[in-house]
Design brief:
Layout lengths: L1 H20 L5 H4 L3 H8 L3 H17 L7 H20 L5 H27 L5 H28 L3 H13 L2 H10 L3 E3 L7 H13 L4 H28 L6 E4 L3 H32 L2
Antiparallel strand pairs: 1-2
Helix pairs in contact: 4-6, 5-6, 5-7, 6-7, 6-10, 7-8, 7-10, 7-12, 8-11, 8-12, 9-11, 9-12, 10-11
């Protein structure tokens, strides 16, 4: 009975979110050839390095009854949120920091697996893609905001400022990627600004949050990665095929429409991230 109630909660939550996320989706968009598009857009070497691990996890997870990609996304968000709360209240407790890091790492891993699970089990959808994208940015913003406040409590204003800027800029790389793709431009993935590298840095930041020198380095890498990648993808958006960050083109109308939908949702998420980062920055100097 309890399992049925939980199942109903997930189903109702998914139905509620569809009203927001699927507003601009169309049947034509959902029929985009996922395999062809992903082959071009998912071109990060770091991402490809982790894909065999994700495939192995998918093979195991897909056999569990009731598990869907969207539910894995929800679980990832819940774990990262719980990890951030524990980390903020860990003070000088190494035990709590370890628990917080484990929660954040597991939540981030779930967020990485949900997309692979959708592709591996043929459950891809426009709703799922946008849910995954929004979850990515909310998690990145939350982790950076938490680390900023954690650093401020330790009197580490340099790291606090860096993480605050990282929180503000978390959605920008994906936003400018979506803007470029809405014009049919496929951008190069690489460097410290990819989703995978940001997740790794976020986990490392949580694990080493009580070490000032490590926090300074990690926060600087995270922030510079966001800003540099944003600049590169903005270049591709503005210069299109003339940009050195444009590696291919896809002028399929359905691909462009899907990218426009992502862009619109990311613009909304960006407002939240800017607010959260600005609040953290303001709090540092309060």
């Amino acid at each position: 009975m309890a399992l049925e109630e939980i199942d109903n909660v997930f189903n109702n939550l998914e139905e509620d979110l569809v009203g927001y996320i699927d507003t601009e989706s169309t049947d034509a968009v959902s029929q985009v050839d996922e395999q062809d598009i992903n082959a071009a857009t998912r071109n990060s070497k770091l991402r490809q390095l982790f894909e065999p691990v994700a495939d192995l996890a998918v093979d195991k997870i897909s056999k569990i009854p009731g598990v869907t990609p969207n539910r894995v996304s929800f679980l990832g968000n819940a774990l990262v949120g719980a990890g951030c709360i524990v980390l903020l209240n860990s003070e000088s407790s190494n035990k709590k920091s370890v628990i917080a890091t484990a929660l954040i790492a597991t939540g981030s891993a779930a967020d990485f697996i949900d997309g692979a699970l959708a592709r591996g089990t043929d459950q891809t959808s426009e709703f799922g893609k946008l849910l995954d994208l929004i979850s990515d940015k909310l998690q990145e913003t939350s982790i950076a905001w938490t680390l900023s406040n954690k650093a401020r409590k330790h009197g580490d204003h340099i790291s606090a400022n860096n993480y605050a800027v990282a929180a503000m800029s978390a959605p920008f790389p994906a936003l400018y990627r979506a803007k470029a793709e809405s014009k049919g431009i496929i951008v190069k993935e690489g460097g410290m600004g990819t989703r995978t590298s940001r997740a790794v840095l976020g986990i490392a930041g949580a694990a080493l949050s009580q070490n000032r020198s490590s926090s300074t380095l990690i926060s600087a890498l995270l922030t510079s990665g966001n800003l540099v990648t944003t600049a590169q993808r903005r270049d591709a958006f503005l210069k299109e095929e003339l940009s050195k960050y444009c590696i291919d083109q896809n002028h399929d109308a359905r691909f462009k429409e899907s990218s426009k939908s992502k862009r619109n949702k990311l613009e909304t998420v960006s407002k939240f991230s800017i607010f959260a980062g600005t609040a953290a920055l303001f709090h540092t100097y309060k």
